[in-house]
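pasting for ref. prot 1 ->
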Amino acid sequence: MAHEASKTAENNSDVSVFIDNIADDGRREDARILLALFEKVTSLPPKMWGGTIIGFGCYHYRYESGREGDSMRCGFSPRKANMVVYLIGGYENPETGAKMDALRTGLGKHKTGKSCLYLGQLSSVDLDILAEMIRTDMAYMDAKYPR
C-alpha cells in the first residue's frame, strides 16, 4: 500500500506564532510551559503538526496491513477545553503501559484517551511526573523506532 498523506503532517508553521495566537491567557501560558518542558526532556526542536499540534521528533510506522506513514514521537495541543498531551508509544507495550499507569496515579487532575492525556490547567498537574512520563514514552519510542 502506498504511503498515505496524513491530515496531521509536520509542516513549517511557526510554533511561537501559533502559541502567541492562543486566545486564552492561561492556555497560552500553559502552552509555553509545556513547550519548555518537552524541549528540555526530549532535546528535540518543536514542529507544528497539522494546524494545532506541537510535536517533537518523528518516526515512520508501517502496519501489518501495509498502511504506513510518519508521525511525531510525542507532543501536545492547546485545545479550548483541555491541554492534550500525546504520548504515542508506551501504551501498546504492557511493561511501558504499566509504568505509565503507575506514574498517572501521582500526576494530578487528568483524563486519558488511547494515547493521550487531557489536562485542564497545568497548575493541577505534577510537572515532574509529566516529565517522567515523557521520558518513559521517548525511551519506548527510541527502542522501537531508533532515530
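and prot 2 ->
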Amino acid sequence: MDLDPASVNVAPGAVGSLADAKPTRKISLAGIRPWTWFVIDYAIAYASATLAFTITPHALTIMGLEQEHVGQAGFSFGLALLVALVAHVAGLHELNQKRRSFSLLGRCFFVTLIALVIINAELLFVHYLKVGRLITVFTLIGCTAGLFALRALIVGMVVRNTYVAAIVGSTEYTDRAVSYLESSETNGVKIITLDLGENPDTNLKEWAFRNGVDQVVVDTDDPLVPSQNELLHLIDGRLTVSTYTSFVENLFEKVPSKHITAQWIIDTQSAHESLYESAVKRVLDIVIAVIALVLLSPLVLIAAIIVKLESPGPVIFRQVRVGQYGQLFTMFKLRSMKADAEKDGAVWATEKDNRVTKVGQFLRNSRLDEAPQLLNVIAGQMSLVGPRPERPEFTEQLEKGIPFFVHRLMVKPGITGWAQINAAYAASEADSETKLSYDLYYVKMLSFAMDLRILLRTISSFTNGAR
C-alpha cells in the first residue's frame, strides 16, 4: 500500500498544454471483478484440456478390446466449469487474494488437481468412461501454468501501470479517509491527497494531470468539496470522479459505515423493489433449504446423539434473535456450548470460547450446528444468505454506539452472508462495526449473482467457523 497523507502543494497557474492533455485510462485490480476471473479461468481450463487431447492419443486398448473413452468436448466443458467453480470457492477470484508467487502457484495447482479428481471420479463411477492418464497429466500441467501465468501477467501489468486515486477536500476529510485506508490493503492503488484548506487556489484539473491522477475522490458532505463545474471539468478530461463511499465500496467491497447518511439508506431501500428479492429469492430459499435438510439429516442426527452423550442439556438450542425490520423470532441451532453457558447473563461469544464443548467446536468449525436454521429458512424467518441475526440484548447496545446498525436488517437475516465470509468472529462492538460495513454492502448489492457468489465462498469458510 502506498499512502501519502501529506498535503501536496502545487502552485496555481497555467501549465501550458497540460490542461488539454488526455490521460490514458487505466484500471486497478479492483476493476477486475470476480466474474471476469471466472470467465478467464474457464477459458484457460477449456484450452488446456483441448490441447491435452490434441497432443495425446486417447483410445484405450485393454486385452485387445477397445474401451469407451470420454469425448474431448464433454471433458473440456466439464473440467473448465469445475476449475472456474473451485477457483471461485478457493478465493482466487477475490480482490484481496494473496498474490505472492509460490503461494499463488500452489493454489492454482490445488484448484486444477481438485477439479481433475472430481471430473475423473464422476466420469468413471457414473458414466463408466475412461480418461487417459497422459491427458490428465498434461491438463494438470497446462491448466496450472495457464492460471498462474495469466494472473501474473495481468496483475503485473496493472500494478506496474500504477493507478492513482486522489482524496480531495478539507483536512478533516482527507485525514479521516487516509486513516481508514491505511488499515486495509488497497489492491495496488496509490493514494495521494490534496488538502484544499491549505491549497484553496489550486487548479484541480492541472494538479491532477501533473500528479498522474486517475480518479478523484470527494465527500459530497465535505465543506470544501470542489464545485460541480470543477468535477465535470475533470470528467471532460477523462478522469474518474467518485464519492468516497462508492470508492471504498469498489476497492474493498464494503461500505464505510461511518460515512453513510440517511439518504444512502433511503436510496438503498428503493433499489430493493425487484422481482428477485420479492419472489425468486424466497423460492430458491425454500427449494435449497428442503434439499439441504434432507441431505444433512443423517449427519444432524449423528451429531445430535453425540451432543447428548457428551454433556447434559437439550440437543437443540433455541435463542431469540432480531429478524428483518426488528421482528423477533426463535432461532434453532445444535447446542455447541455447555448447558449453563449463560447462567450469569448474555455475553459475547468469542472465537476460542471456553464455554464451547469439544464436539461443539467441531460443529462450529464445520458449521453443522447451524443446520437446524434451515427450518427457520423454510418458515420465512431467515434466508440462506443475509446479515447474521443478532440477539436483542446486543442489538440494543450496538444501536446506541453504531449509527445505522439496525438498517442492516432491511433484508432477512441469513445462515451465511458477506460479512461472515470476509470478517472475523464478532466478539465486540468494534468487530460488529467491521461486519456492519460488509452487511451494508450486501444490502446494497443484493442480487442472484451476489447470493451465488456468497454460497460458493461459504464452502471454503467451513474450516474456520466464521459467523
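The longest helix spans residues 275-310.
Confidence is low (pLDDT under 50) at residues 1-19, 59-66.
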